[in-house]
Write the structure tokens for this entry.
Amino acid sequence: MAKPASSRSGKTSSASSPPPAADHNRERPGEPKSYEASKDELLEFYRQMLLIRRFEERAGQLYGLGLIGGFCHLYIGQEAVAVGIQSALTPGADSVITGYRDHGHMLAYGIDPKLIMAELTGREAGISRGKGGSMHMFSVDHKFYGGHGIVGAQVSLGTGLAFGHKYNEDGGVCVAYFGDGAANQGQVYESFNMAALWKLPIIYVIENNQYAMGTSVQRSSAEDHFYRRGESFRIPGLQVDGMDVLAVRGATQEALEWVRAGKGPILLEMKTYRYRGHSMSDPAKYRSRDEVQHVRETSDPIEGVKKALAEAGVAEDEMKAIDAQIRKIVSEAADFAETSPEPAPGELYTDVLVEQY
Ligand SMILES: Cc1ncc(C[n+]2csc(CCOP(=O)(O)OP(=O)(O)O)c2C)c(N)n1
Ligand SMILES: [Mg+2]
């Protein structure tokens, strides 16, 4: 006969008996509600998403002109995720970490577009002094901890940031973004285990844009409902329409409430889509043009907010004027990034760890 196993509550149960009922009844976050935005908030969401889109379009052009070296991963299509989440965070208190598709996140956190574009073109004025490029942008001032090229690494690092928030009792929450592909990495689950054990203040955000480079979720993921990926660590998850900025904001508030109440980590699966290739060098032959066109026509995040604005009585002309302002900001950022000086050769020797430890 199987030896009785000890349950978490300390009571014993037979190994063959079902798990204690309490496991199934354990507390879960409420159903997230769509955020009810005021007209001004909607306008701000529109502005921020448009800024990301126009910025990324211009970055794509600069890359084509040979002004951006190295890799360049655009965020077009996913704008509602970063904008909706960021709008719910407390600037200066909460920390953020993400992968290499990071320009949109930095813009959503209010970082000057000029400094981001100048980083792309490798200039001294860039946010990482032109030495990080597209994938390695960093701003401690904004509690934005990168920009990481190693798939999944930001999940462990973000868990460490959350540990820091708890240890220092600073009230902050870490938001760690990663992709559907990264979600299949081993270190993600080691991090989940520690975060759940220590009830760390972290929101794990899986940006499920349906593809990891050229591999679709269906071909790579045995459990493609990513919000369930924390279940065996008792981390609850919510699946969210990541193309709807109001749904994203509503779910983030629910998640923040959970984490700030000291209940430990929570997972948000953002169902989203990227319109461009994985990076600028991807011809995207693994999917049809029709597939992309269909998403653009039926669930574009910016068009969704435009519709809501029209319903709230905002005139088409006002929206066009915002677009013109945004184009101007992006043009100025591009001019700055093309004309500002490159770092002096001496910069090669700064920010390099030389001590032994
Ligand atoms: C550890 C590691 N393995 C492989 C790669 C190569 N690689 C770069 S991006 C990527 C796909 C990641 O896809 P996903 O997590 O879905 O993010 P997305 O690009 O869709 O935002 C891979 C395999 C890498 N950078 N790091
Ligand atoms: Mg992906």
